[in-house]
Design a protein that fits this description.
Elements (H helix, E strand, L loop, with lengths): L1 E3 L6 H7 L18 E5 L2 E5 L6 E4 L1 H9 L6 E5 L5 H5 L4 H6 L2 E3 L4 H6 L4 E6 L2 E2 L7 H6 L3 E4 L17 H15 L3 H18 L10 E5 L7 E3 L4 H8 L3 E2 L8 E3 L2 H7 L3 E6 L5 H10 L7 H4 L3 E5 H4 L5 H12 L8
Parallel strand pairs: 1-15, 4-5, 4-7, 5-6, 7-8, 7-9, 10-12, 10-14, 14-15
Antiparallel strand pairs: 2-3, 11-13
Family: Belongs to the bacterial solute-binding protein 8 family.
Pfam family, one: Peripla_BP_2
Protein name: Iron transporter
């Protein structure tokens, strides 16, 4: 039973896809509502002027801007080739085509060339000490930043995730609505997303929930989602149980031995990267040990695009799609 979630369109997505354009504020005068103060990653940030040349990194982050109708405030986006399939399936495909694609990998050189006045990215979604692109460095060059809330780091551990992932999505939508002067549109999106999830969420007892393993990538060891990632809450809201929900991180590498011990009922495949969904399923079927997993033997595969499994406006429809699939799956390994 292989199921592909190619079309993740719902009224919630269409709301952001065909809303009115946001009027520009580049008249030279700073609106009276500024300065705007927002709490982002448990830190208060002050924005003195409305951003006019926003640069984003990663598909989910870019789609948040599109869902809010803020494409006219964007100077461009960074998107890796591994996410191009997601852009092709996006409800905002035309906006991806109209807004400049700056490069695959975020760099200070391209940020400067774009004349960015704000960078919207996240930790491990463009921001990182190893890449030498951090909010602090941007600030030193006079560029504002906003950090994706799903990626916020907890204390000194560096692990990501300080709030439930869907709450992180609602927080970012509301914050950006305030920053760009479209709070009503932001609240409407949040209301639509909540409604989509509530309608999709099944009434399932904990012991009856099918177990789900999210397979992102990896041959020697798999990359998956812990409890800090959007995928974990998508699985939970859809009536399933993430087999790695006890890991306090968003995206993390585990061992195949731990997957074998969990013996999931369902394998959720992240349609992302150089390998296709077909490639990933073939690897699981042909592996001597993994081929014995319940989900593999029963052909219980479902795939969702990367953009639906990281924080972004496709999350609510991902809950609905996965919930529909899990309805026919026996729970708790039975």
């Amino acid at each position: 039973m292989v199921r592909s979630a190619v079309a993740l369109l719902s009224s919630a997505l269409l709301l952001g896809g065909c809303g009115a354009e946001v009027a520009s504020e580049n008249s030279g005068e700073v609106p009276e509502r500024f300065p705007v103060k927002l709490t982002n990653c448990e830190r208060e940030r002050t924005y003195e002027r409305p951003p006019e040349k926003v640069v984003t990194n990663d598909i989910g982050i870019t789609e948040i801007m599109f869902a809010l109708g803020l494409q006219d405030r964007m100077a461009g986006y960074f998107l890796s080739d591994g996410q191009r399939r997601g852009a092709e399936s996006s409800p905002w495909k035309q906006r991806f085509e109209r807004v400049p694609h700056l490069a695959e990998r975020m760099s200070m050189e391209r940020i400067r060339e774009a004349g960015a006045d704000l960078v919207f990215a996240g930790w491990n979604y463009g921001f990182g000490e190893s890449s030498r692109i951090t909010p602090e460095r941007l600030e030193s060059e006079g560029i504002d930043s906003y950090v994706l809330s799903e990626s916020c780091r907890a204390g000194e551990t560096g692990k990501r995730g300080i709030m439930p992932p869907l709450e992180a999505l609602y927080t970012d939508i509301r914050n950006l609505g305030e920053l760009f002067g479209v709070p009503e549109r932001a609240e409407k999106l949040v209301s639509e997303y909540r409604s989509t999830i509530e309608r999709a969420a099944p009434d399932v007892a904990e012991g009856e929930r099918p177990t789900v393993f999210l397979y992102d990538s990896g041959r020697s060891e798999p990359f998956t989602s812990g409890n800090g990632g959007a995928a974990d809450q998508i699985i939970s809201k859809a009536g399933g149980r993430n087999v790695f929900a006890d890991l306090d991180d968003s995206w993390v590498s585990v061992s195949w031995e731990s997957v074998l011990r969990a013996d999931p009922d369902v394998i959720l495949i992240n349609d992302y990267g150089d390998e296709t969904v077909r490639d990933k399923i073939q690897f699981l079927r042909e592996h001597p040990a993994l081929s014995r997993l319940e989900a593999v033997r029963q052909e219980r595969f479902i795939d969702l695009p990367y953009a639906a499994l990281v924080e972004g406006p496709r999350n609510p429809s991902a809950v609905r799609e996965l919930a529909d699939f899990l309805e026919s799956v026996p729970g708790d390994g039975t």
